[in-house]
Request: fold
Amino acid sequence: MKSKVNELKTNSKNKNVGDLYRDISVFNKCYQPRTNIVEDEKGDLVAHCHIILARQKNHFSQLLNVRRVNEVGQTEIHTADPLAPE
Reply:
């Protein structure tokens, strides 16, 4: 990374505009900005890492931990009739 930055500086000082823009273009293709923003329970955007982690913990805790199994009803399973008599 340091060598690439030094090369950019050298091209800038020597006014090698073509090489400078080519190297900047290659450098920019590798860069992908990331945003760490989530919505809280109210729909407000949150960017603080500790609040995001707490929000994710709460979300997946509610999603994956089923506490009231009584609410899950039985589902009828319809199967095809057997092809051969028993």
